[in-house]
Design goal:
Strand order of the largest sheet: 1-4-5-2-3
Number of strands: 5
Helix content: 10-25%
Number of helices: 3
Largest sheet: 5 strands, antiparallel
Structural class: alpha+beta
Order of helices and strands: HEEEHEHE
Length: about 100
């Protein structure tokens, strides 16, 4: 079974990604972590998911500390299989006490 060169290049060029946004460097211990899926389609031009409000994910008296977006292996495979027409992400919000 031969794999076409274009498919091999597409698979190798797509990988996992992880982006973490920190609110401040002297972080207290996390109280709660909220994880959900976020999906965009049509090369990122249209969102199928509602915007993720950090204030809604961390209700008072909690505030958000970190917001992490990640593409895991299965999500990367879905992107390759659909030529980036379907692009799922995992978003994790870490909440701490104010």
């Amino acid at each position: 079974m031969r794999i076409p060169l274009a498919v091999l290049i597409a698979v190798l060029s797509t990988g996992c990604a992880r982006i973490v946004i920190h609110r401040k460097s002297d972080a207290p211990l996390p109280v709660e972590r909220v994880t959900e899926r976020y999906t965009v389609v049509a090369f990122g031009n249209h969102s199928m998911s509602a915007p993720i409000s950090l204030a809604d994910r961390c209700p008072e008296p909690l505030v958000w500390q970190d917001a992490t977006t990640e593409v895991n292996g299965w999500q990367a495979l879905a992107r390759v299989a659909t030529v980036n027409l379907y692009s799922p992400w995992t978003v994790e919000v870490t909440c701490v006490r104010r």
